[in-house]
Amino acid sequence: MPALIQWVKKAVEKFLDPEKEQRVQRLAIVLHQQLQTHRDKFSLATVVRGLDPSPTELETAKERVYRTILARAWADENLTAAEQQTIQWVAHALELNEQKARQINLQFAKEYFAVALAQAMQDGVLEQHEELRLARIAASVGCSLPQFARAFFSNEGEAFLRGIFMVCVADGKLAKTEWNYLLTMAQKFGFQREEFLQVIQPQAELFVEQVLANAKADGRLSPHEESVLCWLLGNLSVSPAFKFYVDQELGLLRTLTEIEDGRLPVLPAPRAIELRAGEIVHFHAPAVWQYVRMSRGKQMLEDHRGTITLTDNRLIFSSPTKSQSLGYRKIVSHWGRGNSIRIEVEGKPSSTFFILEDAPLAYPVFSAAVAMANQTRIARTDEKPSRHIPRDVRQRVWQRYGGRCAECGANDYLEFDHIIPVARGGSNSENNIQLLCRRCNLKKSDSI
């Protein structure tokens, strides 16, 4: 609104007094010439005597002269002490209001600072010569770089810091030297550590999600991966909800690692399930047993709803309609994805068990129990080495999907998924890998 009012005023003045601009320009030329000619003997009262300008026209002309001289001094973005003294003398000689002169000085400094900052932001890295350039501009109006940036460019400074952070983590890693560099940059732009952490929080959470997804890629949590994630959570500022989520995922990964190493969870004996002496329960949940049966020469799918129990030596399915107990030594191959377990027994059609709740431990527990019962790794269609996705492939896939699920756009519970499963000939190439959240990955599993 103020800009509109000023525009209206100028338009009205131009319409009512079309020669005013010419008078102001002539007066500005005279003032400038007299300053150059008489210098220390310049007298504003003497110059304007006889010209009889209006107070408004005189103030406008004085500001115009001051801006012209200031622009010449700013041409190289380096106001020397001599140039600053000259500018102060001009303001005094023109009897320019001190507050007005400072306002004009700040306007010039902000314009040049904005240009210098934009150029520095192009690569997201503040080089030493760029920092010195910004500091010189700030010093021209008596400010340090942090003071000037914080006072006039807080929004731009925040954007710059976010940009630097994204450059530092572009390779999916954040070295401690890079982190210290970021903290130093924040200080140079007038941000305290806690303020800086709040500025980059959205980008920090996205980065932690990427590191977490990389750790989940092989289903194991190495000491190094855990150390990195704990360090990130301890140094970056994340929301309590996000930290809770990451802690849960880390707990799940730790459990998966223990299962992979043969340390399976031990559960109380479920009700109505007859266990053998010394039998240990590792998993129990509601499930649907689906298998193929022959009827009048045709194959038909038959479903039974009940519970599945995984012990140390057998799979027990209990249902009011049909139950079975299957010893692990009879299994010749198995396959698992999401909440489903498919098994093959010699001489029989395959069976699939669908767990009726979110159960990421179901297949890992089953796979490890079978391997331990057989004292070996029997035929598996998703053997870990063949499913390993190289780090560079994961990095390119993450960047391609922008850290979001390819199906729903979610940015949590992310997993690297084989579009064509490895069991069906899918490769670990970039074209066969996508980013899915666990929810969409489970939906895909149900449809396979």
Order of helices and strands: HHHHHHHHHHHHHHEEEEEEEHHHEEH
Terminal Cα separation, in Å?
Answer: 61 Å
Q: Which strands sit side by side, in order, in the main sheet?
A: 4-3-2-1-7-6-5
Judging by the overall fold, what is the CATH architecture of the domain at 281-381? Roll
Low-confidence sequence ranges: 377-385
Which key phrases capture this entry?
His-Me finger endonuclease fold, 15% strand, 448 residues, two-stranded antiparallel ribbon, PH-domain like, rod-shaped, seven-stranded antiparallel β-sheet, alpha+beta, 18 helices
What do you see in this structure?
The chain has about 450 residues and is α+β, with helices and mostly antiparallel strands. It contains 18 helices and 9 strands. Among the domains are: about 1-95; about 280-380, Pleckstrin-homology domain (PH domain)/Phosphotyrosine-binding domain (PTB) (PH-domain like, Roll), CATH 2.30.29.30; about 385-445, His-Me finger endonuclease fold (3-Layer(aba) Sandwich), CATH 3.40.1800. The protein has helices at about 1-15, 20-40, 45-50, 55-75, 80-95, 100-120, 130-140, 145-150, 155-170, 175-190, 195-200, 200-215, 225-235, 240-260, 360-375, 385, 390-400, 440-445; strands at about 280-295, 300-310, 315-320, 325, 330-335, 340-345, 350-355, 415-420, 435. Strands 4-3-2-1-7-6-5 form a 7-stranded antiparallel β-sheet. Strands 8-9 form a two-stranded antiparallel ribbon. The longest helix has 24 residues, at about 100-120.
